[in-house]
């Protein structure tokens, strides 16, 4: 499943490291994750520790649980029909850009419930931020977390995945097509046009890209078949700490002036719209 980022040979665990046949070795961190980011790769660091902690605190409130439940339902429905004809282990799943692990952790739990030990899912989370992998591995020990860059060649064997999640994260159409097996499912989640509309009206948040759904569909048209999108919209009532964590977990946090942070109490306990679009694709043969 995992391959060496230096020579692309399979990696196998030996003691507290992953090694390939050529002797390249990658130590497992105390928390259980592995760093497969080539040492020459610099520049991109991903989310900061503060952003990740804010995201964990916000998600722990259950505000985005309906999105996680919708993703799980789509993945489980796909796997129910995929198992019989699957050319690979049918429960092999990656969350590319997993952050602190919330979505892949919930999917792992949904899959693992009731399955015998021999049939447990093989779930992976990948993020370029080492702090993300560390936080995720501590919370979700059943998932293998990997530090790697979505924008480069991914450390997974060709056609080795049954499901690939990409939730508010960078995309790599070429690599996603390579590592997803024929018939495999790609689930991309993006904000809907009305997402956090009430906060956007009051605060100078970063905008949502126009025609984002169409842009993504065009990116994946060569190797994937687009399925019907799944919109999801519901109201949230947030207190001031929840709004703070919601803003602090996004890139908008870097751009908000001090007076915007000071005004959060005024926005608290008012209805805020959560709006998402889940874009499913299947990998063509």
Note down, in words, how this protein is organized.
With 285 residues, the protein is α/β, with parallel strands linked by helices. The protein is built from 10 helices and 12 strands. It has helices at residues 49-59, 65-82, 102-112, 130-139, 173-179, 197-202, 212-219, 240-248, 258-262, 264-267; strands spanning 12-14, 17-19, 25-27, 34-35, 92-96, 122-127, 144-147, 161-167, 180-191, 224-226, 230-237, 271-283. The strands form 2 sheets. Strands 4, 5, 6, 7, 8, 9, 10, 11 and 12 form a 9-stranded mixed sheet that branches. The chain has a 3-stranded antiparallel sheet with strand order 1-2-3, with no helix packed on it. Helix 1 (49-59) packs across helix 8. It is globular. The two termini are 20 Å apart. The mean pLDDT is 92.
């Amino acid at each position: 499943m995992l391959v060496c980022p230096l020579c692309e040979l399979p990696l196998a665990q030996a003691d507290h490291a992953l090694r390939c046949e050529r002797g390249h070795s990658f130590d497992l961190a105390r928390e259980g994750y592995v760093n497969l980011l080539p040492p020459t790769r610099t520049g991109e660091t991903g989310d900061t520790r503060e952003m990740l902690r804010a995201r964990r605190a916000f998600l722990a409130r259950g505000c985005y649980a309906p999105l996680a439940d919708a993703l799980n339902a789509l993945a489980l429905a796909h796997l129910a029909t995929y198992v019989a004809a699957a050319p690979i282990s049918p429960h092999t799943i990656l969350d590319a850009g997993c952050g602190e692990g919330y979505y892949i952790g919930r999917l792992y739990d949904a899959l693992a419930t009731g399955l015998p030990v021999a049939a447990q899912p093989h779930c992976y989370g990948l993020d370029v931020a080492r702090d993300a992998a560390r936080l995720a591995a501590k919370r979700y020990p059943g998932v293998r977390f990997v530090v790697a860059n979505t924008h480069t060649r991914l450390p997974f064997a060709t056609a080795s995945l049954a499901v690939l999640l990409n939730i508010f994260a960078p995309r790599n159409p070429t690599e996603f097509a390579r590592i997803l097996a024929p018939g495999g499912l790609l689930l991309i989640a993006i904000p809907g046009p009305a997402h956090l509309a009430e906060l956007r009206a009051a605060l100078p948040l970063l905008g949502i890209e126009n025609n984002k759904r169409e842009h993504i569909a065009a990116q994946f048209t060569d190797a994937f078949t687009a399925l019907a999108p799944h919109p999801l919209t519901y109201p949230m009532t947030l207190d001031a700490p929840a709004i703070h964590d919601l803003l602090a977990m996004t890139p908008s946090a870097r751009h908000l002036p001090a007076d915007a942070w000071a005004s959060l109490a005024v926005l608290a306990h008012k209805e805020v719209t959560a709006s998402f679009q889940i874009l499913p694709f299947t990998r063509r043969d």
